[in-house]
Amino acid sequence: MAGLKEHIFLIGFMGCGKSTNAACLAEMTGARQVEMDQMIVENEGMAIADIFKEKGEPYFRELETDLIKSFAGVEPAVISCGGGAVLKEENVRLMKECGKIVLLTAEPGTIYERVKDSTERPVLNGNMNVGYIEELMEKRRPKYEAAADVRVATDGKTAGEICGEILEIC
Ligand code: S3P
């Protein structure tokens, strides 16, 4: 298939499958896969949990905005965003200027199963249970919905099916 015309930003709650599906989309389109969290870890030389602990969440959110700014004008890629990357309206505006925003959704129980053993999710660590995941998801839902150009439910689907759906609409 021909390359992408613009970036595809995959957004959604932690554990909704952004990285897995970004890898699959990159393979299907030949576009580059970009992992925002991984780039931040490499640039800062620190794990996400340590950035939160030592420098604070606002600092991490600034890094996200700086990174999103750097995507303007570069070759279209499949970009797997951090789960909180669309909480700031500025970030959503920047993304929309250079790509399509695809929201991946999953049920709280599915999310819990995927993230329960993670020590790298400072937003959840200390509150790793389905009830809290559900509560935070509800709180964030309006932001995710407002940002999304396209929505794809992921429960019970393979990455191939999910990415097929995305490419049909993007
Ligand atoms: C966050 C999600 C994480 C990471 C950071 C904050 C969030 O990314 O960016 O821990 O606020 O939802 P994943 O969605 O890849 O876990």
Give a quick set of tags describing it:
binds shikimate-3-phosphate, 8 helices, Rossmann fold, alpha/beta, 170 residues
Structural description of this entry:
By secondary structure, this protein is an alpha/beta fold. The chain has a single domain (7-169), classed as P-loop containing nucleotide triphosphate hydrolases (Rossmann fold, 3-Layer(aba) Sandwich), CATH 3.40.50. Helix content is 52%, strand content 14%. The chain has helices spanning 18-29, 36-44, 48-55, 57-69, 89-98, 108-115, 130-147, 159-169, and strands at residues 7-11, 32-35, 77-80, 99-105, 150-153. It has a 5-stranded parallel sheet, with helices on both faces. The model has no long low-confidence stretch (mean pLDDT 97). The chain binds shikimate-3-phosphate (S3P). Shikimate-3-phosphate is lined by residues 14, 18, 37, 48, 82-84, 121-123.
Summarize the topology:
Layout: E1 7-11, H1 18-29, E2 32-35, H2 36-44, H3 48-55, H4 57-69, E3 77-80, H5 89-98, E4 99-105, H6 108-115, H7 130-147, E5 150-153, H8 159-169
Helix pairs in contact: 1-8, 3-4, 4-5, 6-7
